[in-house]
Structure prediction request, 286 residues.
Amino acid sequence: MKTTVICFTNNKGGSGKSTVCANLGYELASSGKRVLLLDGDMQMNLTLSYFSEEETISMAQSGKTLYEAICDKADLADFIVSTRYGGLDLVPSSSLMSQVEFRLFTMMQREFVLANCLLGIKEKGAYDYILIDAPPTLGNWVINILAASDYCVMPVEASPWGLFGLANMFDFLDSVSGFCPVSLLGVLITKVDERKKYYRQTCDVLSQYSDIPVFKTVIHVDSAVEWAEDNSIPVSVFKKSARSAVEFAQLSKEIIKYNNKEVSHGSRKKQYGKSIKKDGDDRKNR
Prediction:
């Protein structure tokens, strides 16, 4: 079976990328899929989702993290650690990822270092899905992540500022589309509180663009997520009946359903980005 690589990216922080990546990975593994998680952010939140602070710091200092793999252009198979859950593995991050942009700048074919590091794993077919948590930035490292991915998922927070990062991401995808043919699997609305108007505003703006896929599943604000993260476990393990646990399970079914469906991020995304920025500016001035 072909390995599908999905990255979670948005240049706005706080959109829920790490939370979605971590819990989706668990749900895919629970459904029988073999999953590898790549922690591409110096904040190490994806690693902390499965390992304690002490374990995460120990791995970060081990010299066997994604940062060292990128610097050495090494096969990522040598950097994989197992989680406590069957079928779910992880390549940890470290705070040294803050230096990855500089290290990439000195390399030949620097946009494809991560893709080359993944070649061996993909050729062996050891995993059904590889999920990559990208940092909230735009640059060579995020280009690497996009170039290594088949699809990207853009989590968008249902908040007054949630749509701003999305506009920049669409412009960024335009600028790299010539050599980085990643497809948008969908926009995922996160941190939803239906008592507030921001959720409806976000839905209204996104509904104007039929060529931009939006997941049917949304992720609501749920205290169970925070408790689960505090214990370094998936929310379904913390409380299987939690609202967010049910939603992440639904999201995994959507991902599996769309896996063999080629999705384009559409030719109108530049116009879409401008519309989002204008909408955000109007709200800011009110």
Observations:
- The beta strands are 4-8, 35-39, 81-82, 88-91, 129-133, 151-157, 183-190.
